[in-house]
């Protein structure tokens, strides 16, 4: 019996693969994955005028009411297909393309969609708008026309024959083919009950554009669909909001003789199973659409942490009143004044501590390397007297005298010790993500703490004016900035104790922390001012600060700092930082430490490079 079931399953799987392969309109041997072209497509999109901060991501499949042939109906395929679309936040492209039998054509199709999306605006009519955008693109860049024609001609050979379609479908198909060949030549498109076969060269309307985002469940939402160990989460899912069914008010029919009598009542512990279901993610993968609702009653099983502010007696110690700061809203293209509340604090429980013994040899080595910078001497040219003859000044004087234009100038050089006119503020990210382990012994926050200690030891040797701060956030009402050492304080055991008392927690609202650091650094009298940011990830918070909003606000805060004459520079250990840091800090405004354990040693060396350039 078991052997028969296994044979049936094997035959069924073979049949499924066979019929699916025969029914598919794609060319698997020429398939191109979006992941292999995602970064160049994002650069191409922005270079051709696409909205800044828009990311390239995979589009989920959507329902399309198409006319399917017999094989496709038997196989159950072509009910859903991935198409390209673009909105204010994302450029969504199919996760893979196998439209053409050649790899080069599929790659060119990805590039064409990125170029078209850069020209696109608000979509009012699918066909007319795509024609208009295509025409604008070809007129602006005539060199694109041959490549576009190759894509069109290759695609038209694969489209259904109008002779095999119903009258209304055939008329629509002919109009669409004409619109592809000659963009802008078709104004009227016949109506049809069935959708035309997908046009991969055009953008489609954004999904769920008129509905609230189903994934935004508010501050009380919890992620209870766990991904099974060893499996990766799939692409985005289509979702819709539904009202919670309370199952109240219905008609209850029962038989009175089924009720327990007093003597028959038995107490049983019928507790429900509150453990997380590891199969939930597998079930979600099989669903085409997820229905989400807010539940008023929550399960009590498992470990759930409510990330709120701790009680005042265990929280960090606040310093003074909160500070109101603005925040950049890219949707309005303006600053929202007094939108963020920043609270300056010091770590609770910090006591004066010496430098840890394990860091003493490295600190001694760094002091020896940086000692000569403190006594740096420079040659001053064109001096009236000095120890060396200024040959360049003497040659200039000789030439001018030959031409009768003798100007009095110093002809000597003198070496003098120069004072370093520099101030630096180091801003360290101590959000919840820094609690992650780098290995079995060390966490990210411990590496950051060691980096701050060695940085302080080095700069105290140099004699440069510097300040050390940490930051985290819990929504816009509570941005926390930890004062480890201000510009007016000495670097001593009190500072070392505060650094060693750092505890990770909460989130990363970078924009507010950078703006307050700009104010503190701008008050210094030094001519050169350096703002360093050490982080392990991109800006995020519990509210709308996630995604493009946080990236845009951080970028605007960096631009504000540069307008104030500061030099902002980011040091990160996030291996994916190259996807977003060039946009926020510029191509030369950041560095990636690929081995995080090297951060304590690399940080002083980076400071030396930045201050000597």
Automatic annotation (TrEMBL):
InterPro entries xrefs: NorD/CobT (IPR051928), VWF_A (IPR002035), vWFA_dom_sf (IPR036465)
Top-level taxon of origin: Bacteria
Gene3D superfamilies reported in the protein's UniProt record: von Willebrand factor, type A domain
Region span, Disordered: 220-244
Residue span(s) of domain VWFA: 421-610
Pfam families the record matches: VWA (PF00092)
Protein name: Nitric oxide reductase NorD protein
Source organism of the structure: Pseudomonas peli
